[in-house]
Design a protein that fits this description.
Helix content is 26%, strand content 25%. It is globular. The termini are far apart. α6 packs parallel to α7 and α7 packs parallel to α8. With 431 residues, it is of the alpha+beta class.
Length: 431
C-alpha cells in the first residue's frame, strides 16, 4: 500500500494533544519476508528478554500484569531509536485523533526533549502560552509541583492537560537569566488560525503562517488575493517564526504559491514507498512579488520545508536565525483498533539535496530577536531650517505619523521590511 500524507504532522507534543511530525503518514504495518528474519533472530537476546520478563513477574515488589509489561517493552524499544518514534496507547492515539481535528485543550505550546530536559519548542499564536511571554528554548523545570526530570514527553503532556478554566504553574529557566521564574497559565480550548495577513506599509504585505493545517494552502491563496486587491505588492514578508510544522501537503501548497516550477521537497528512506517527491505547479498565486521569509529556532518541519525550497529556488531572502532542524518522517501504523506505532521511516531533503534533519535552515541574513528603541529628540540639535535667513525649499513637508509599534517591538520584522524597501530601490535604479 503506498504511503499517503494525511493528518496533522509536527514532531512535538501540544499541551492537550500529541502532534505528529511533519508528513504524518498512515499505513498498515508492512509485511516482512520470512527470509529477512528467520536466520537473523538473536536467540540469546530473546532468551534474556524472556528471563527478565519472568523475573519481573515473580519478584517485583508489586504485581504487574503481562499486558503492561509488554507495552512497556514496546515503549522502550521505540524510545531508544530516536525522539520521535513511539508507541501510542489508546489514550495517546485518541489524543492524536483529536489533534487532527484542529481543536484541543491545553495552554498552546509545543514541547520536546533537548539534552534530556523538557524544552519549549514554540508557543502557538494567540494562546495562553504566547500571551504569557513563554519563548522558544525555555526549559520547563516543574509542572505545578512535579519536577520534569525523568518524565517522558507523554507524561509531561498528560500533566499539562486539564479542563478549560483550570490553572497550571510552570517553573521555567530562560537562557541568559540567573534564576528560574514561575509562569501561571489558565487552560483553554485551543483553536488555532493558521494564517493571518496585514499591510505593514503602503505596498508592503505581511503574511503570518503559525502552523500548517489541512486548509493552510487555500488560506494563504485567499490572503494573498486580499493583500493584492488594491494593486500589486512591492514586497511581502512571509513569517514562519515559531511555526512548529504541520501537514506536508499544506507546506507544498504554500511554497507552490510563490514558485512556478521546480522541486519543493523530497524524502528518502529504506522502504521504496517512503521515497516521495513534490514539485511546484505552473499556476502560481504570487510568482513575482519580492519576498523575505522570517525563520527562527522555533521554525520546524513544514516551516523548514517551505523556507528551504524558497531559498534553494532563489525565490526569496531567508532572514532571522537558524531553524529547529526537524527533518524526519514518521509513519503512523495502527495496531488493532485503539493503538498505534509511530515510527521514523525517512528524512526530508531540500531541492538542492540538503538534509533538514538536525541541520536546520541557515538564514541568508542573520538577524537576532530584539526590540528597537527610538531616541527622542532633545531639541539641542541645530538644522538648516533653524538658521536665520535660511532659504526655503521647493518640496513638500515631511510626512508625520506615529511610529509603528509592531515594527518597534519586532526588530526582525522591521529589518525584513527595510530589506524589501532596499531591494525595490535597487530594482528601480536598474530600470
Amino acid at each position: 500500500m503506498p504511503l499517503r500524507p494525511v493528518g496533522l504532522p509536527t514532531l512535538r507534543h501540544r499541551l492537550g494533544a500529541t502532534l505528529l511530525p511533519i508528513a504524518l503518514l498512515v499505513a498498515p504495518l508492512p509485511a516482512v519476508a520470512a527470509s529477512e528474519t528467520d536466520d537473523d533472530l538473536p536467540v540469546a537476546e530473546i532468551q534474556a528478554f524472556a528471563e527478565v520478563f519472568e523475573r519481573i513477574k515473580r519478584a517485583y515488589v508489586e504485581e504487574v500484569d503481562d499486558a503492561t509489561l509488554l507495552r512497556n517493552a514496546m515503549r522502550g524499544m521505540l524510545s531508544e531509536l530516536d525522539p520521535h518514534s513511539t508507541y501510542l496507547d489508546a489514550k495517546a492515539y485518541e489524543s492524536l485523533r483529536e489533534t487532527t481535528q484542529g481543536e484541543f485543550g491545553g495552554v498552546g505550546i509545543e514541547v520536546g526533549k533537548r539534552d534530556g530536559q523538557l524544552t519549549v519548542i514554540t508557543p502557538i499564536d494567540d494562546t495562553p502560552a504566547s500571551r504569557s511571554g513563554l519563548q522558544a528554548q525555555d526549559t520547563i523545570l516543574r509542572i505545578d509541583d512535579t519536577p520534569t526530570e525523568g518524565l517522558s514527553l507523554q507524561e509531561a503532556v498528560e500533566l499539562m492537560r486539564g479542563d478549560p478554566g483550570t490553572e497550571i504553574r510552570l517553573t521555567i529557566m530562560r537562557q541568559g537569566e540567573d534564576a528560574p521564574r514561575n509562569v501561571t497559565l489558565e487552560r483553554e480550548i485551543i483553536r488555532t488560525q493558521s494564517v493571518k495577513s496585514d499591510i505593514l506599509a503602503p505596498g508592503y504585505g505581511y503574511l503570518r503562517v503559525s502552523q500548517f493545517q489541512t486548509r493552510t494552502g487555500e488560506q494563504v491563496t485567499e490572503a494573498l488575493n486580499d493583500l493584492t486587491e488594491d494593486g500589486p505588492l512591492q514586497g511581502l514578508v512571509l513569517d514562519l517564526r515559531n511555526n512548529p510544522g504541520g501537514v506536508l501537503q499544506a507546506a507544498v501548497d504554500v511554497a507552490d504559491a510563490f514558485l512556478e516550477d521546480g522541486q519543493i521537497v523530497y524524502t528518502e528512506g529504506r522502504l521504496a514507498d517512503s521515497e516521495l517527491s513534490f514539485y511546484a505547479n505552473r499556476v502560481t498565486t504570487a510568482p513575482d512579488v519580492p519576498l523575505v521569509v522570517l525563520i527562527n529556532g522555533g521554525s520546524a518541519s513544514a516551516a523548514e520545508i517551505v523556507a528551504g525550497a524558497l531559498q534553494d529556488q532563489r525565490r526569496g531572502v531567508v532572514m532571522g536565525t537558524k531553524s529547529f532542524g526537524k527533518g524526519s518522517v514518521q509513519q503512523i501504523m495502527p495496531l488493532g483498533e485503539d493503538e498505534a506505532l509511530k515510527l521514523t521511516t525517512a528524512r526530508y531533503f531540500t531541492p538542492s539535496g540538503r538534509s533538514i534533519q538536525a541541520q536546520g535552515i541557515e538564514p541568508d541574513v542573520e538577524v537576532v530577536r530584539g526590540r528597537l528603541e527610538v531616541a527622542k529628540d532633545n531639541g539641542l540639535q541645530v538644522r538648516e531650517a533653524d538658521l536665520e535667513g535660511h532659504l526655503t525649499g521647493n518640496g513638500g513637508g515631511t510626512q508625520g505619523g506615529e511610529f509603528n509599534t509592531r515594527l518597534r517591538d519586532d526588530y526582525q520584522l522591521g529589518e525584513a521590511l527595510n530589506l524589501l524597501k532596499a531591494l525595490n530601490v535597487l530594482d528601480e535604479r536598474k530600470r
